[in-house]
Structures are given as structure tokens and as C-alpha cells.
Design goal:
Blueprint lengths: L9 H8 L9 H8 L6 E5 L6 H12 L6 H4 L18 E6 H8 L3 H16 L9 H11 L11 E6 L3 H5 L4 H15 L4 H4 E8 L16 E4 L12 E2 H10 L4 H8 L2 E3 L2 E4 L1 H10 L13 H7 L6 H9 L4 E2 L15 H11 L3 E3 L4 E3 L3 H12 L4 H8 L1 H9 L3 H19 L4 H11 L7 E9 L2 E9 L8 E8 L3 H10 L13 E8 L5 E8 L4
Parallel strand pairs: 1-4, 1-5, 2-3, 3-4, 14-15
Antiparallel strand pairs: 6-8, 7-8, 9-11, 10-11, 12-13, 13-14, 15-16
Helix pairs in contact: 1-3, 14-16, 18-20, 19-20, 20-21
């Protein structure tokens, strides 16, 4: 048993025995069908914390001849397959995490990878010429396993995690990138690999980019955040899996969905598993993802000076979808040349969702919204950052009945967003209000244009189960009238009916602004008598 060649199953054993484990071994049914086929290489490029590395640990534990994993998989989904034992621990398996070599060896990455890998293979197959090319070494090892009893020999399964970190981090070192691509070519696309390779699996953040004349990976089937087809459910958590966890840990599935749902991949709603596990385990809804290494990319991309980008970002922060052409992106974070490139990069990084049917991008959930907020507060959009920083003050001022302070903060917010989106009507005011109450979804279900009584309430905020003793709110907006008229409309049209059954305090919030852009607010508290 080695670390890189025929590794053991200890890492996946920890995964499978952990307090929260969702069985994704059905993926092995997909990969088994590719073994020894002509198209036998797949690339999975998903955002960080979406289960790519756990899947790599699972695959190496299943295929590696360096361990006995029958008992480990015996109670998991794959054990129900007819060919469960056909491929179990039957392959010479190579598993490399390129990022671990990058940390230690930098410019000597390729040499060190081969040095460590060949040392382990040599311990098992000593009489092979290890001074030969990589492809020749692996092919000669394979030929050693061919016999009358095993006419097809023992093929290789090659698993590479974080394969693209060299491409992403060393774009200014073309010689290193070229050497790395030659190494990958030897593993996956050389003439010899057609003989020794049973299956190839690589994971990364970005889809594969063809680098000038390099074509080492153009034989891979690609699965991305835009389309992952038949393997979608094996990366991230499905809605049913999240519902089951919420029931098990006695959490509101509605609140968990508001915080973490939203990635729409091939028609399936997917959740970031790291965030969901952290939320249910600690029984706390908060952002568990914004400290990933790709976080700084948000601010880098959204503040680029491309026509329409700022407007698109503000629209998405306001829960709208914006059209994006994802086909022109070169799959290279160093080559962002347009609004569409910037938005597509954020889709691949997991900071935007993508509706493939409509061709539109959107911010998937409240957790990601908080990441955008944090990025903007440290970036160059000072007007937006200043407005967002007041959101929590606005919410508490409303709860505390400080009408003048509410009017003041909303006036600043309205002016800020008006200068970007150029609106001046009640609907636009509603957008500005939604943005002004940016942090409210942490505590409330926020509904715009909710049917109620004799009309539609402009904005209704219903406290979440985890919100504590916060009041519900009904917000009515008026233009060039007065705030009292807004309160009267709430009462006359019985908008409070939207909260029928709600027994705690309800705040009626009337907001008016006039032609001079002056805002006023009236807040009235009622206790419902249902």
C-alpha cells in the first residue's frame, strides 16, 4: 500500500464513518461503465467544497489494489450493483493531489511527482526501466501483469485531484505549464496509455482550457457547474438529502433552503454540502463558505470596468436573473475580457448559479449574497459598500420603530441604486427597499407583491423560526403622497391577511418619497386578533 500508487482506503473510511455522510457511491456505477472503453476519461470541474475530493477518495478506495474495501462499501449503494465485486480493488491505481506538491516543490513539481510516484511503483515492480518516459514506465508495468491467466493484464486507474492548480497559478510560467501538460499527455492520451489506462478521472475548479498547441486533455468528457448531466446528483446535496438532514437535526428546511439552496444544474437544485453539514451540525445558519481561496475572485471580477457589469451585479443582488453568454469564456481566470466572461467565471467558481434553459445567471442563495456583501465592502464600489453597511442598522431601526432613521437610510439607498439603475417609480422603489433590507433574509422570509386582502402588499417580511422574537412586517410604498396614506392602504385593503395565523407583533411600515427625492416613514405596531 502506498500514498500515490495503490493507496489505502483510510481517508474514505473516515468520510463514510463520519457523523454526517451522504452516500454518493452511485457515481461508481457511472465510472464502471467507462472502464476500458475508448472514451474512458472524465473531468469534473465544480466549485470548492462541492465534494470533488471526497469522490476522488471514494474512487481510489474502490479501485485500488492496495486495500480491501469490500466491508467498507458493503452497506453503501454501490454494493447493490451486479458488478460490485467485478471491479472492486482490481486496478493499479494512481492518486495525486497536485496542490499538495505545489505547496512543497513549486518549480520542480513535475520532477517531484514522478520521483515520488515511481519510487512507490518500483517497490512493487523493481525490474522496470524508470529512466524511460512516463508513458513507457506505466506501459511496461502494465505489460508485466499480462499473462495466460490474465490476458488483459492489470490496467491503471488514474485519479488526479486539483489538476488545474498549475494552469491557474502558473500562467506566467509557460515552460512549467508545458512540462505539466506533457506529463498529463503521457498519462491520458499517449499511444501507450491506450494500452495501460483503464479509466482517468481529474477534478478542478475550471473547465479544461486548450493551451496553444497542447491537446493533452481534449479526450475528456467534461462535467461542470453549467452542465454535469448524469453525475449531477453525486456532487452537492439534493433537496431530498437536505430535507432528510433537517428532519434529523430538527432544523427548519425552509430556512436552510433560503441560506444554501439555489444551484440549478441540469434541472436539479443542488446545495453546497460543506455549508449544509456545518449548518445542521452546529445548528446555526451562517456563511461557511466565503473564506475559501476563491473568495477574493468575487471582488476582482465584479468591479471590472465592463459595460453593464455593475448593473448586472446590482440586479442579481436584488434577486433578478441576468442574461449571460457562457460560450465565449476561455476557461481561464487570467483572460476576463467582458461582462460575460466575468459572470461565467463566477458561475464556475460557485458564486453565481446558472439557469441553462433561460441562459441567465443569478445569485443562488443568501450565503452567497453575504459573500458578495463582504467583497463589496472591501472593494472599489464605495457607494454600494456604504449602503450595504447600513442594512443591519436599517433593520433594527425598523424593529425599534425609529421612523426618521428608517427614512434617512432608505433615502440614501434609493439615491445610490437610482444612480446605477436609473429608475424613478414605485416598482424601482421596491427594488431599492429590498436592497436596503439586504440582511433581512438572515431573519425573515422576504416576499414582494404578496397577494392579500384586496390587493398586493408591496413587501411582507415573515420571521424565520430561528429569528427569535422579531416582529413580522408589512411595508407599503408611495410616491408623492404621504406615509400615512401608505399605512391607511395597508389597513383598508387588509394586507395583514397575508399573515393570518401569525400571533405575534406586526409592524405596518409606510414609506413615501416625493419629486424632490425626500423620504418619510411611519411605523405602527399592531397585535393581530384572528
Amino acid at each position: 500500500m502506498g500514498i500515490y500508487f495503490n493507496p489505502g482506503n483510510e481517508a474514505f473510511r473516515k468520510d463514510a464513518k463520519s457523523e454526517i455522510y451522504i452516500d454518493k457511491t452511485g457515481l461508481i456505477n457511472v465510472t464502471n461503465k467507462l472502464l476500458n472503453e475508448e472514451k474512458n476519461c472524465i473531468s469534473v470541474s465544480h466549485a470548492r467544497r462541492f465534494g470533488k475530493s471526497q469522490a476522488a477518495r471514494m474512487l481510489k478506495s474502490y479501485y485500488s489494489r492496495g486495500c480491501d474495501s469490500k466491508e467498507l462499501f458493503s452497506n453503501l449503494e454501490i454494493s447493490k450493483s451486479e458488478n460490485f465485486e467485478t471491479h472492486l480493488n482490481k486496478y493499479n491505481t494512481i492518486h495525486l493531489d497536485i496542490s499538495s506538491f505545489e505547496d512543497d516543490y513549486k518549480e520542480n513539481i513535475i520532477e517531484k511527482i514522478k520521483e515520488h510516484l515511481f519510487a512507490e511503483i518500483k517497490a512493487v515492480y523493481p525490474d522496470v526501466d524508470y529512466s524511460a518516459s512516463t508513458a513507457s514506465v506505466l506501459n511496461n508495468v502494465y505489460l508485466k501483469t499480462v499473462s495466460d491467466e490474465m490476458p488483459y493484464g492489470i490496467k491503471f486507474v488514474i485519479i488526479i485531484d486539483e489538476w488545474d492548480c498549475i494552469i491557474r497559478n502558473y500562467s506566467d510560467s509557460p515552460e512549467l505549464v508545458h512540462k505539466y501538460m506533457k506529463f498529463l499527455h503521457a498519462l491520458f492520451k499517449s499511444e501507450e496509455s491506450k494500452s495501460f489506462l483503464g479509466f482517468g478521472y481529474i477534478t478542478g475548479i475550471m473547465p479544461i482550457k486548450k493551451i496553444k498547441n497542447e491537446s493533452a486533455l481534449n479526450n475528456f468528457m467534461e462535467y461542470t457547474m453549467i452542465s454535469s448531466r448524469d453525475i449531477t446528483e453525486y456532487y452537492g446535496f439534493t433537496e431530498k438529502e437536505v430535507d432528510d438532514l433537517c428532519e434529523r437535526y430538527d432544523m427548519s428546511s425552509e430556512s436552510v433552503k433560503a441560506w444554501y439552496n439555489g444551484y440549478l444544474i441540469n434541472g436539479k437544485h443542488m446545495y453546497n454540502p460543506n455549508s449544509v453539514v456545518s449548518a445542521v451540525k452546529w445548528h446555526s445558519l451562517e456563511s461557511y463558505w466565503k473564506n475559501t481561496s476563491s473568495f477574493e475572485s468575487i471582488n476582482t471580477f465584479i468591479t471590472l470596468n465592463f459595460d453593464g457589469l455593475k448593473e448586472a451585479v446590482i440586479a442579481m443582488l436584488n434577486d433578478q436573473k441576468v442574461r449571460v453568454n457562457v460560450t465565449k469564456f476561455q476557461n481561464d481566470l487570467s483572460m476576463i475580457n467582458s461582462k460575460d466572461d466575468a459572470l461565467t467565471a463566477l458561475i464556475h467558481l460557485g458564486y453565481l448559479g446558472y439557469d441553462a434553459e433561460r441562459g441567465k445567471a443569478f445569485i443562488p442563495n443568501y450565503e452567497v449574497k453575504t459573500a458578495f456583501q463582504s467583497a463589496l465592502e472591501t472593494g472599489s464600489w464605495k457607494d454600494i459598500a456604504d449602503t450595504l453597511s447600513r442594512c443591519e442598522d436599517l433593520l433594527w431601526a425598523t424593529i425599534d420603530g425609529e421612523a426618521d432613521k428608517v427614512a434617512e437610510i432608505i433615502e440614501i439607498a434609493h439615491e445610490t441604486y437610482s444612480s446605477i439603475l436609473k429608475y424613478n417609480d414605485e416598482n424601482a422603489m421596491s427594488c431599492a427597499i429590498t436592497m436596503a433590507y439586504f440582511t433581512a433574509p438572515a431573519y425573515y422570509q422576504v416576499i414582494r407583491e404578496l397577494p392579500s386582502g384586496k390587493g398586493f402588499a408591496d413587501i411582507v417580511m415573515i420571521p424565520r423560526a430561528e429569528a427569535g422574537n422579531k416582529p413580522a412586517m408589512i411595508i407599503e410604498l408611495k410616491y408623492d403622497k404621504d406615509a400615512d396614506a401608505a399605512i391607511n392602504q395597508i389597513k383598508e385593503k387588509r394586507y395583514s391577511g397575508a399573515l393570518k395565523g401569525y400571533k405575534n407583533e406586526i409592524l405596518l411600515v409606510g414609506i413615501n418619497y416625493n419629486k424632490d427625492k425626500h423620504h418619510e416613514c411611519v411605523i405602527e405596531s399592531i397585535t393581530p386578533e384572528w
